[in-house]
Amino acid sequence: MDLPSAGPGPLLRSGLLAAGVTDGELRRLRRLRELAPLAAGAYVVPDDPRLRSPESRHALLVAAAVPRVAADAVVSHVSAAVMWGLPIWNTRLDRVHTTRPRRSGGVRTGRLHGHTAPLDPDEIRWIGGVAVTGPARTLADVARTERFEQAVVIVDAALHRHLVTRDELVAALDRMSRWPGVPAARRVITFADPRPESPGESRSRVAMARLGLPVPVLQWEVVRADGVTLGRVDFAWPEHGRVGEFDGYVKYGRLLRPGQVPADVVFSEKRREDAIRAEELGMTRWTWPEIDTFTDVARKLFPR
């Protein structure tokens, strides 16, 4: 059966019925798994590529929710972070977050978390026809309501992409005065840094701080005695003669040049690492699973 185009969002029951699809046909399409339910009254085809990542799936949930919320509701919190294209790590994305400029009347259902809070017009932006909180307000809300590590991942990325400045974040928190979570948010903003280039690097920074390791220099250029730059490392402790790298699969994909395959990048990285080790710098690498505890990595970085 030919279905109408969903456009940027999911297929909505109202649109399908208007296009002549009956409820019986919808039930049959679901039974045959030619149509997958996303939320009540919202569907996608099972092979929709937007289902492959939590962020793009959540953006579909936002598109499904917006027509059903109050006219003055603005997409906010982690949902707005998704709309701004920021990476999300270990944060629930099963509910769409919105904010209405009211003192009361918040609601929480299985698919929607409706907040109520003061919201000035200059804190609202539009993305693809959807009203969302601006970057500074979004990140202030995220930093107030999410756990420290999860919030740092998002705020680091926003700073790295020049989506917002630290001064703008501080100003956004100042406007919130005595709102819940502001002290925790200030800790996130103070710790956040624009130099990490991935969630893995941001999480590594949190892990190092948690274990009391010396504060690293981020994105440090390794320069040979004759002035030749050997490369840049994610983390460095020059005074200790130690450097560290977070190894993420995404990083290798990012380093691919036209005509290269991943093996080429791995070989190039090995040569770079050998050159750095030749400068009598101890190199330690770690992967995603090792960040959770980080104790083994810490022992390699600073052996006793």
What attributes does this structure have?
alpha+beta, 4-stranded mixed beta sheet, 304 residues, Endonuclease, Chain A, 13 strands
Could you describe the 3D structure shown?
The protein is 41% helix and 19% strand. The model has no long low-confidence stretch (mean pLDDT 88). The protein has 304 residues and is an alpha+beta fold. It folds into 3 domains: 11-50, no CATH class; 54-194, no CATH class; 200-301, Endonuclease, Chain A (3-Layer(aba) Sandwich), CATH 3.40.960. A 4-stranded mixed beta sheet has the order 4-5-7-6. A 4-stranded mixed beta sheet has the order 10-11-12-13. A 3-stranded antiparallel beta sheet has the order 1-3-2. The chain has helices spanning 13-18, 23-31, 54-65, 77-83, 135-145, 148-160, 166-176, 182-191, 199-210, 249-255, 262-277, 288-291, 295-301, and strands spanning 11-12, 36-39, 42-44, 74-75, 96-100, 107-108, 112-116, 124-127, 130-133, 217-223, 229-237, 242-246, 282-286.
